[in-house]
Amino acid sequence: MVSPAPNSENRSLFKRTKLFDARTTDAIFYWTTLGFAGLILVLVAWLGFQLYSSAAPSIAKFGPKFLTSSKWDPVEEIYGAWPYIYGTLVSSFLALLLAVPIGLGTAIYLAELAPKWMRTPLSFLVELLAAVPSVVYGLWGRLVLIPAILPLQGWLSEHAYKWPIVGPLFDGAPMGFSMMAGGLILAIMILPFITAVSREVIKAVPPMQREAAFGLGSTHWEAIRGPILRAARSGIIGAIILGLARALGETMAITMVIGNGNEASASLLAPANTLSSKLALEFAEASGDQLPALMYLALVLFGITIVVNGFARLMIWNMARQVKGSTRG
Amino acid sequence: MAVAQPSPSTVSSRVKPLPPISKSLMTRRKGANQLMWALCILSTALAIIPLLLVLYYVTIQGVKVLNLDFFTQVQKPMGEAGGGMKHAIFGTMMMVGIASCIGLPIGILGGIFLSEFGNNRLAFYVRFAADVLNGIPSIVIGVFVYAVAVLPVSKATNGNVSFSAWAGGLALGIMMIPTIMRTTEEIVKLVPSSLREGALALGDTRWHSTFKIVLGAAKGGVITGILLAIARVSGETAPLLFTALGNNFFNSDPKQPTASLPVTIYTFATSADDGWNALAWGGAFVLVAMILVLSIAARYATQSKQ
User: Fold this and answer.
1) Residue A206 · residue A273 · CB < 8 Å
2) CA atoms in the 13 A half-sphere facing the CB of A296
3) Helix, strand, coil fractions of chain B, as percent rounded to 5
4) How far is A263 from chain B (nearest CA, A)?
5) Lower CB count within 10 Å: N or C terminus of chain B?
6) Of A37, A138, A295, the CB nearest to B114
């Protein structure tokens, strides 16, 4: 007798036993993969909730004043996050100030101006920047960069503090470990992200735009400045915000060069701390009231990065929609 | 019916000729063009130089300390010459292993869910959550794992077990999930549906066809995702700072604090001891070399499948 062809009725999980038939195993498959996927939702929700509940004693004690007060004293059990929020914002802003022009220039060069044979190796090199771990940047920053910028800092501290508007930026003794070093290292670290995303966005502009500009007699720069950058604008803004998000969360390299200052100072030469570096430095030995306060810091950092990341996603999604629209028309 | 056509002579008499472009305007435009070219080349140089400097110093200073001792000995106390990073290298391997046991199943199965059944509301939220998880600073993840895997365990065991390699591995595993999930989803989506439908038409079950046929075709891409996730995670320091803490000695017990390459580099680099600083460069070289090898292997995995 010929055995019947296998179908969902008689195929089973175990060939000998008819433990589960195919319909059931497919259902198990669906629900198992769904379960594992849902685990991520659970994880993220749990993360947010756990941060909040661990920080709750501190939130109850200090409330929103935590965000603006400047005193962080574990002995007296008074905590304020402002110097660290300030440090995070200023170091990220400095990093963007340096990384955006350089990143955009590199992206334009890689996407438009570089000879074809150079594009892949150069892009590979820029992406290599992103693969180097943060702690290696910190090591290099501490042992190579800081000694290298000490002479510059010495000069600035001696001469620049008298300058009219920017004077206060260079106030104080040059110690090497400073906001300046932090901003520099951070700029190097977010550069590859801004460059890579901007490059993709510029490459995605339909060639028709470029050809049309050339057809009207523009120089290469005018073609870039006009149609190409205009079309790539929201994508580039998305890249910048993505770089910002990266800078906000960066921990190790910044901890190793920024000097553990606990005051919000206008001077770039002064040591400082960011939300993440403060956490890195104090968390391991924290006890008692200090722990909820540190959790509060983590919660603030968590909130800031979620908002900024969400913004970046929105901009990049917006850009994708625009490109689709323009190629249709 | 005759339509009046403008003859060339009438057109040219009605249209004013354009004035010739002024020479100074052209020079200005060309000058601006050259300037931008120069600035873009300068930017690219400024972007590449730090990378070259970092790689240069890591290689030169790192190779100086790489000898057999480096890989077979544990660190010596501050002030004593010599020593190595055996405990750190082993610790990293152990914790990446633990992390993979957590990150691989969730990432791959979740990615399969998103690509096979992924057109509904739940899938949208799952993708969104994966993006959020990817963007969370690694130190916040470390803080979370401290709150759920170190503190409670410490209270339950009366302080016997607190910082552990399990907790460190958990933190790293959580970080692996979004990368693997996204790569798996992308790659599985690329498998032509004819392959899938052919298997189903021959009477195969959903799960069998997915695992054997679709995943078989997507194998290279999935392995790429895994290798890239491992490369990224093995360089992470912050999530290990208060989960696995660190250890001056060799430790193979996952219930105890464990040294890892990044954390040891951090400790050595921030110390005042010259010997330890030198060892830090060596550790950095090993770490960067490891990540480079993994990344190249990842690229190779995708290419050989084509």
Assistant:
1) no
2) 25
3) 75, 0, 25
4) 22
5) N
6) A37
Backbone angles phi, psi at B105, to 5 degrees: -60, -50
pLDDT at B190: 85
B109, B138, B295: residue with CB nearest A36: B109
Residue type, B144: F
Separate counts of helices (H) and strands (E) for chain B? 14, 0
The domain total for chain B is 1
Query: What residues contact residue B230 under an 8 Å CB cut-off, 6+ apart?
Result: B96, B100, B176, B294
Residue B48 vs residue B21, higher pLDDT: B48
In order of their start, the domains of chain A are 1-63 (no CATH), 68-328 (1.10.3720.10)
Mutate to test the interface with A, among B26, B44, B267 (most CBs of A within 10 A): B44
Q: Cα torsion at A21, A22, A27, A32 (round to 10°)?
A: 100
Best mutation target among B35, B42, B51 (most A Cβ atoms within 10 Å) is B51
Q: Is residue B272 part of a domain?
A: no
Tens digit of each residue's pLDDT (9 = 90 or more) over A161-192: 778 877 778 878 888 898 999 999 999 999 99
Q: Does residue B1 lie in a domain region? A: no
Q: Which residues contact B190 (CB under 8 A, 6 or more apart)?
A: B218, B221
pLDDT for the residue numbered A232: 80
**Rounded mean pLDDT, B23-29:** 85
With an 8 Å Cβ cutoff, are A128 and B51 in contact?
Answer: yes
Q: Which residue of B has its CA nearest to A307?
A: B132
Residue B204, C-beta contacts closer than 8 angstroms, at least 6 positions apart: B212, B213
pLDDT in tens, B193-207: 888 888 888 877 777
- The residue assigned the tokens 């300046």 is A180
Whether B203 and A8 lie within 8 Å, measured CB to CB: yes
Residue in A139, A246, A257 to test binding to B, most B beta-carbons within 10 Å: A139
Q: Is residue B217 part of a domain?
A: yes
When the pLDDT of each residue in chain A is averaged and rounded to a whole number, the result is 85
- Tell me, yes or no, if A214 comes closer than 8 A to chain B by beta carbon: no
Is B73 among the domain residues?
A: no
What digits encode the pLDDT tens for the residues B140-190? 999 999 999 998 888 888 877 889 999 999 999 999 999 999 999 988 888
State pTM to two decimals.
0.86
Local confidence band at A101 (pLDDT 50, 70, 90 cut-offs) = very high
Cβ <8 Å between B54 and A137: yes
Under the phi-then-psi rule, with left for phi > 0, alpha for psi from -120 to 50, and beta for the rest, what region is A69?
A: beta
- What CATH code is carried by the domain that includes residue B99? 1.10.3720.10
B23 compared with B240, residue with greater pLDDT = B240
Domain range for residue B109?
88-260
**Helices H, strands E: what count in chain A?**
12, 0
Instruction: Respond yes or no on whether ipTM tops 0.90.
Output: no
The model's confidence at residue A10, banded by pLDDT at 50, 70 and 90, is low
